[in-house]
Amino acid sequence: MITLKNDLYTYCNDYVLERITRLKTEIKKTQSSANEETKSSAGDKYETGRAMAQLEIEKNTKQLSEAEKLEGMMQAIVTDRISEIIIPGSLVTTSKGIFYISISIGLITFQDKQYFIIAPDSPIGKLFMGKKTGDTVSWNNTVYAIQSIC
Question: What is the rounded distance in angstroms from the CA atom of residue 43 to the CA atom of residue 87?
Answer without folding.
Answer: 57
